[in-house]
């Protein structure tokens, strides 16, 4: 096996271990309890195939974009911008779900403390789990994580071997295709799980930062993303089947009465049945077998937490460096770019979930409904040409919120139609959104081509010039007595002027260099209005232009009214960005652009933070 295939195998092992989070780890037990082998396969196959599909498609994305080994990183940097909050929430919930599952289904059944010490015990356990994730995440970055996960994988394989060696008999009667205990599960039907699981698991990896970071690193190492994720999907499938079949073996040994515990919602859950079996039969099974199982669970969680820590550190750090938001700049970058505050929030939510006696399914609802639409749209934006269109944030959030409520009602009331609707509705909406937007894009492009071609016909060109000619009779004062110094329309500062002969070139169009001058004049008037006390003789700072961009869209002619609108687009601790738009007499857009400002000392021209008086003046218009 050459280096690339060996490297792909190592990365595949890391992919599988990082995906063994709380959902994959404990829900395989629940699915085996509810529906037998068919339920376990229903859960394992889409889960593994979703990983393979992610690797296969991201390989295509990496090859279809320029940039060589950095092509996928360059693509993700642009692709992730509208999904930044969703990426963060997805990762945060995934890690919270993982820590919650390990504490609820391993350490709570162990009952290492009672009474008033139980709360302290839980806090310490959560702290230790999170601290271990942070420690391993800091010790092994993305370049070395495949090596640490190789050691973890060898240890995990040893645990699996010890457990399999102690199973006697190896295939009990509970290895049935249907539910082992039909009367135990009275919740949603098999179909109610089949569709949401298939949909959620197939699109799930596309919002996971761990997988994007791995795919980028694999591509940088000139290794096949496709092969790595095919290995990862296969290893992950075997781990899920092992854990689910172990649960079926325990059910065959224990029987129905001890297989599940009834929760507050009236449903019976069996996530911790293997843990409870080994606790009760610790001596009979031999101490090495329970310890091997507990170690198996701990490794699966640890390899998820360290991956999550590394991914959050990469994602948060990258976004903090590029952000120009003033509020973000007020907080030290070491705090915002660190995963530690996020891990602290994970610990708080975990403890709240334990004390509220929640179940794993309550966290999982989001992955079968809320995140489905975002993940589907993310896939579409990788391959559909309309990827540059703005993300409809409000519409997407509204649809996601509606779907999660429908799904939750369906789950709690065992209504299969609502479960299906909650999972499929976001998909249908995204398909409509993509098709509709793409159709409008094609129509707009074709219309532009037709208009451009028609404008070259001499007769039409002459008619256009005659129609756009402005005479003295057409020059009217702007409505509402436009102020000589400009005025505000919401957040926009607006100033109008009339183009004259001095502004035009030899063919009668407004010279291209005049548009930046119009913007500059408007900007100075904007400063004059917002900072009336500014005195150039006594000022402690100067405002300098860092960069200026302008896109020319249409041309203007002599005696047309030129209206410039300018506003504060964004700012951070050092820089302020102004956005501008220029319109003609018919309110048609002539051009648009932006400029970046910086502030320097009037004494030595050293770079300053935005002065307090500027910040105070600007904040009400931002």
Q: Give a short account of the largest sheet.
A: 7 strands, antiparallel
Structural class: alpha+beta
Uncertain regions: pLDDT < 50 for 5+ in a row? 438-456, 460-481
- How many strands? 9
Coarse morphology? elongated
What oligomeric state is this?
Answer: single chain
CATH fold name of the largest domain: Amino acid/polyamine transporter I
Cα gyration radius (Å): 31 Å
Average residue-wise pLDDT: 84
Bin the helical content: 55-70%
The number of domains is 2
Which CATH class of the largest domain applies here?
A: Mainly Alpha
The portion of residues forming beta strands comes to: 5-15%
Count of alpha/pi helices = 22
* CATH architecture name of the largest domain: Up-down Bundle
Termini Cα gap: 59 Å
Give an overview of the whole structure.
With 622 residues, the protein is of the alpha+beta class. The protein has 2 domains: 3-368, Amino acid/polyamine transporter I, CATH 1.20.1740; 478-619, Roll (Thiol Ester Dehydrase, Chain A). The protein has 22 helices and 9 strands. Strands 3, 4, 5, 6, 7, 8 and 9 form a 7-stranded antiparallel sheet that branches. A two-stranded antiparallel sheet has the order 1-2. A hairpin with a 5-residue loop joins strand 8 and strand 9 (607-608). Helix 2 (22-64) runs antiparallel to helix 9, helix 6 runs antiparallel to helix 12 (288-322) and helix 7 runs parallel beside helix 19. The longest helix has 43 residues, at 22-64. It starts with a helix and ends with a helix. Residues 438-456 and 460-481 have low confidence and may be disordered.
């Amino acid at each position: 096996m050459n280096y690339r295939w060996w490297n792909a195998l190592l990365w595949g092992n890391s992919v599988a271990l990082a995906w063994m989070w709380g959902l994959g780890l404990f829900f395989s037990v629940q699915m085996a309890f509810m529906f037998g082998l068919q339920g376990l396969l229903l859960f394992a196959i889409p889960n593994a195939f979703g990983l393979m599909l992610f690797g296969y498609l991201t390989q295509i994305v990496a090859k279809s974009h320029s940039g060589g080994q950095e092509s996928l990183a360059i693509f993700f940097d642009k692709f992730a911008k509208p999904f930044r909050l969703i990426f963060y929430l997805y990762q945060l919930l995934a890690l919270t779900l993982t820590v919650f599952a390990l504490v609820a289904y391993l350490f709570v059944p162990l009952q290492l403390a009672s009474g008033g010490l139980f709360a302290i015990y839980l806090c310490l356990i959560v702290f230790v789990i999170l601290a271990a994730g942070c420690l391993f995440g800091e010790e092994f970055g993305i370049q070395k994580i495949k090596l640490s996960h190789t050691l973890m994988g060898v240890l995990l394989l040893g645990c699996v071997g010890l457990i399999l060696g102690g199973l006697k008999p190896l295939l009990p009667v509970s290895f049935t295709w249907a539910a082992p205990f039909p009367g135990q599960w009275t919740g949603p039907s098999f179909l109610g799980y089949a569709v949401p699981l298939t949909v959620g698991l197939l699109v799930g990896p596309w919002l996971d930062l761990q997988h994007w970071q791995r795919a980028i690193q694999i591509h940088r190492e000139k290794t096949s993303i496709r092969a790595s994720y095919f290995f990862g999907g296969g290893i992950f499938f075997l781990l899920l089947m092992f854990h689910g079949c172990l649960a079926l073996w325990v059910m065959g040994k224990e029987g129905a009465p001890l297989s599940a515990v009834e929760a507050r919602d009236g449903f019976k859950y069996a996530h911790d049945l293997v843990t409870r079996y080994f606790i009760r039969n610790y001596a009979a099974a031999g101490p090495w077998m329970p310890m091997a199982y507990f170690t198996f669970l701990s490794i699966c969680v640890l390899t998820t937490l360290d991956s999550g820590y590394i991914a959050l550190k990469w994602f948060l750090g990258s976004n903090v460096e590029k952000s120009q938001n003033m509020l973000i700049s007020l907080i030290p970058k070491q705090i915002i770019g660190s995963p530690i505050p996020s891990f602290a929030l994970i610990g708080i939510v975990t403890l709240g979930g334990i004390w509220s006696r929640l179940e794993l399914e309550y966290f999982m609802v989001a992955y079968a409904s809320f995140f489905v639409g975002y993940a589907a749209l993310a896939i579409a934006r990788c391959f559909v040409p309309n990827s540059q269109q703005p993300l409809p944030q409000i519409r997407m959030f509204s649809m996601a919120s509606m779907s999660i409520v429908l799904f939750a009602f369906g789950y709690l009331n065992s209504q299969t139609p609502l479960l299906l609707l909650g999972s499929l509705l976001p998909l249908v909406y995204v398909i409509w959104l993509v098709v509709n937007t793409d159709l409008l894009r094609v129509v707009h492009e074709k219309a532009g081509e037709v208009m451009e071609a028609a404008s070259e016909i001499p007769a039409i060109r002459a008619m256009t010039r005659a129609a756009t000619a402005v005479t003295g009779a057409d020059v009217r004062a702007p409505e509402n007595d436009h102020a000589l110094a400009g005025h505000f329309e919401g957040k926009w500062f607006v100033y109008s002027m009339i183009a004259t002969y001095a502004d035009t070139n030899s063919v009668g169009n407004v010279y291209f260099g005049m548009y930046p001058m119009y913007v500059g004049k408007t900007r100075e008037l904007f400063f004059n209005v917002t900072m009336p006390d500014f005195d150039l003789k006594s000022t402690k700072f100067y405002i300098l232009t860092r960069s200026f961009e302008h896109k020319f869209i249409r041309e203007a002619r002599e005696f047309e009214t030129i209206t410039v609108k300018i506003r504060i687009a964004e700012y951070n601790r050092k820089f302020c960005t102004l956005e501008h738009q220029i319109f003609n007499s018919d309110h048609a857009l002539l051009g648009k652009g932006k400029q970046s400002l910086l502030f320097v000392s009037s004494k030595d021209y050293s770079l300053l933070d935005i002065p307090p008086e500027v910040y105070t003046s600007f904040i009400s218009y931002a």
